[in-house]
Amino acid sequence: MQTWAKRGIQSAFVTGGLLMLGTGIASAQENVNPDAAPSPVDAGVSVPVKVDQNNLGTPVKNLDVPKVDRTISTDRVTSAVPTRTAAPVAHPLIRQAGERLQGTALQNVVRGNTIQAHVDVPIQICGNAIAVLGNAEAAGDCTQYTHRDGTIVTDGAGQALAGNVVAVNHVLPVQLTGNAIAAGGNAATNTTAEQVSTTGGDITTNGDKGAISGNVVAEYGATPVQITGNGVGAAGIAEANSTADTFASSEGDTRTSGRNSSISGNAVPIPVSPLFEVNGNAVAGAANATTDSVQTGAAYAGGNTDTDGDPATLAGNVAEAAVAGPISVDDNAGAAGGNATAVSETINDSNAGGTKHTNGTGSTGSGNVAGVPVSLPTGVGGNGAAVIGNALTDHENEANSNAGGETYTLGDKSVLSGNIADVPPATAIDACGNGASAGGQAAGTCENDVKSTTGGYQGTVGNDSVGSGNIAQTPVAVPVEVYGVAGTLAGQASGSADETKVVRSSGQPNSQDDRGTVSSNVVTTPTAAAAQVFGFTAGLVGNTTTDSSNDTSVIAGSDPKAYGKKSSVSGNIVQVPTSTPAQVFGDGVTLVGNNSSTADNATDMKAGGDALTTGEDGSIAGNVISTPVASATQVAGWAVGGGSNVDAKATNDLDSVAGGDVDSNGDGGSVSGNLIGAQATPFVPVPGNSVSAAGITNSDTLTDTKTVAGGDSASTAQDASVSGNLINVPANAIVGVYADAIAAAGQANTVTDKESFTQAGGNMFTEGSGPLTAREMTVPVEALAKVAYVPVEVLGQATTAGTDEDTQLTGEEAAGVLRATQLKGIELPKGVDSLMKADEVPAFHGLDKLPVNTLPNPADVAALAGQLPTPALPAVAQERSALPVNGGTAGITPNVQGLPLNEVLEAAKALLPAGATGRSLPTVPSLPVTAPALPVQLPGVPTERSLPALPLDGPASVSGLNLNPTQGLAPQERALPQLPVNAPAIALIDPANVFERVTGSL
């Protein structure tokens, strides 16, 4: 082919391509009719660029970088730097087609359906200094403002496939300001910059009485990128002094409705608002780098969502996925053969999503809500690292991140409606105030204040419904952090951090139901965990120091509530909360060198809470399964050294709580109001150990921990069947190795004051009437094993000192004393049968048998003083008269379970003739009373009233003391585990006998 022909074809392609491109890139002079109907399709990308006040140094000369102030866009350009609303403009071909349809029968062919997608990328490059084999200096005062209106209003009511909206309103501002880069030269900058970028708007439509109408899928995005105030030096000097602020917003509410419709009024908002930052860092390689910066950032996306599916089919549902959280790498210093210093202050705020409200009353598959809010603030700041150099940082950070919000819906008189599903992870990841060196010096200093939250209250109802008003949530709150850590290899390093953190995931689930079926049930699995390492030092032939503090609050979920009155398989709660901190702090490990570690910890953790429900007049309703697990794993205050001096000091205050009280009601129900719990508190304390080999190690530790899983259980079941029963398996275990000292050719010392409180389960209470109703069973498991305050010396000296107090409460215990479970009275353990028969009474020291036919010998009775079991056996009813005594027992003062001897003596004396003595008393007739357990007659009392008769039928009993508790029970119920009775009287019978715990039985 001829050359000219080839060139002609190429020109045609290029010209055609430009023409095609021209249909999508409009000019500022394009004629747009503001009265034209909005286009059904509107999409575009806008890139406003502003370059100003930058300086470049070269070996030849110093240059000011040319200014740029323009917008590259696929839609209409309103100004070089838009500061007012830009009217949405469609692609020209689409717009022309729409205009030609006006006034024709096809003008409404789109029926209000809308597709709108806009992405704005403002770029600000200002106040930067770059030196390449020369010097550069910049001083900038920079601003950039952009805005686009993304408001959408349409309507699909009463139509099919109408009023649907697909929208993308995203702003992605990029800020590059106040940076200094020196390569073989000197670079300095002093800059103030501000960038404001907004878009979004409310989206309003309607799908009432429609089919596949009024649905919305909308992305609201605000994701600023900020790279400011950094100093980088390579064989030069870089100095950056910067103040920068970025603000990005794509906010807007979503409003629609699907009443009396089918597959209408559904909403899917997607708010996204993370910030990405690299600010105030100093990096030096055979050079010097210094930064002093202040940066602030904010990003807001989305808003509230409101729709309705009453009454409808597959309508008014909401699904929201929200993401929030700044991700920052700020104020770090790194030096290799040079010096780097970074001083910085950062404040960030990120919010995505909001409240969700809908309605599924009288509907099918409507008014349901699904949420996946994610809050992920991540910070790497205030860290110093040096290799044959010096690195120093001083960083202050404040971050607030929130995703999602509260949820409200209704599912009355519906099928598969008004349900809520929530997956709301909240976390915070930080590496802050750390120092690391190799042949150099490094110091990291950080003050960190972070708040990360997701979701909120969740409420629904399922009255008179089927499969409605249920809630399922998986709250997760987990901070992951390393701060105030120092490590060195042949150098010096220090780390310091002051941390305040709140991490919360989701809120209270609350559902109510009357006369429902498989409705208003709650399933929640809240998880609170903390993986934290702080105030830790490690050195190898070097010196390390740290002084750090931690104040952390971690909350996952809240108190679940459900109601299932007059319902079937409703109002039930399944709660599986876990609180599992894992913390390492205040430890020092050094091989040849000096080490000093100080850490202060205050952590509060809570997963789940009190569970409340009711299953009155219901079937399989109001039941609760709760299996909380709370632990406290900490390695604190360890001093470990070899040929070194190590001092470790740690203070600790930790509360780890999972679950809470459980309360239900099964009155008039069937298989209702039952509570099943398995509470576990595995506690592994290992604080305050000291280990030395040819060195000196000192540990000073003060720790106070509280670990609680579950709480009290209560239910009632009047006139019910298989209801109101309580079954608990509390397990409480402590396995610790702490306050030990090991010295090998050295000195190891520890002073550890340790106090702990662990509780699994709690008290149980139930009452009611009916078959297999209102029964209790508990199977407590408790273990305690520890190696503590043990000095081990191998040609060295080891000392241990301090206090140790562990309190364990497992199941039905109060103040550390086991309470006997009550089953229609107080049941004695089976072990008593081998010691005392039903027709026997205990033998006491000094008497083989109690006197039954005659008055007791005064000498024998006197020998009983102090042996009668006054404090432990149940009291004898007060209305019974006391036994007679004579003068030989006047010195006996104990009150024997309600038998006041002194008062009886005085009363007897009042009835005697004047001058009568104990030796001249007449013969007293016997009481006409016999009992199966006492087949002999007791002496009578010469008073005006006789003792009431003991029961002749049934188990032998004295004032509620059931001596034959298995009478009347089924064979399998006789095999009860032995009961833990610590009564002094029983101990006197056979001190070697050890009773097992009372557990009760259904």
Automatic annotation (TrEMBL):
Top-level taxon of origin: Bacteria
Region named Disordered: 245-266, 346-370, 494-520
Biased segments, Polar residues type: 245-265, 494-511
Signal peptide segment: 1-28
Domain Chaplin: residue ranges: 109-139
Alphabetic keyword roster: Amyloid, Cell adhesion, Cell wall, Secreted, Signal
InterPro entries assigned to the protein according to its UniProt record, in alphabetical order: ChpA-H
Pfam families per UniProt: ChpA-C (PF03777)
This protein's name: Chaplin family protein
